[in-house]
Amino acid sequence: MGIVSSGFRGRRKRDVPGLPPGQYVTEDFPVLSAGPTPRIDPREWTFSFTGAAARRLWDWNGFLSLPHEHVTVDIHCVTSWSKLGTRWRGVPVDALFDGTDGASVSAREGFALFHSYGGYTTNLPLTDVLDGKAWLVHEFEGEPLAAEHGGPVRLLVPHLYLWKSAKWVDGLELVDRDIPGFWESRGYHMHGDPWTEERYG
């Protein structure tokens, strides 16, 4: 049911040190989506933070004013390709919690349900998105993030399979239980660790 970009010319190199099991290296950046690509004007983009006592909303300019980091990471798709040394720029998820009453110890031990334009969701324990493990990115390889790769803003959680790095994000909802997201409710694993091949539930 996903959409795969044409011209997928992966070099199927599997004997790469540090590559998760079952993966091969590609030098392309395949596009896989569950539906049509939304085209979102950054001037109309917003991101909400809700749940517990937290209620915050950023527009594009407010988002750009948050602390930013440059990140170089490997990314791994559940369909078995990996792309090494990708370069991104964005806001660490930790920065969303700064000054937020809802970021109590109990909230930080809960779960995040990320929402995207078009209705996509994905679920993550907060332990997988805090402490420098995840970012909301809007640049890739020094350029604004293209719509087909999730622009204007996508989630980046590089230590998990790439379906957890939701494209076109527009919200983070704090929840007290692990609610299955779009792919998780369709048989994908609730966690998605590539190193232990948590592909399907």
TrEMBL record:
Q: Where is this region: Disordered?
A: 1-21
Under the heading Gene3D superfamilies, the entry gives:
Oxidoreductase, molybdopterin-binding domain
Q: Which Pfam families match?
A: Oxidored_molyb
Superkingdom of the organism of origin: Bacteria
Q: Which residues form the Oxidoreductase molybdopterin-binding domain?
A: 35-183
Q: What is this protein called?
A: Sulfite oxidase-like oxidoreductase
Q: Which organism is it from?
A: Sinomonas flava
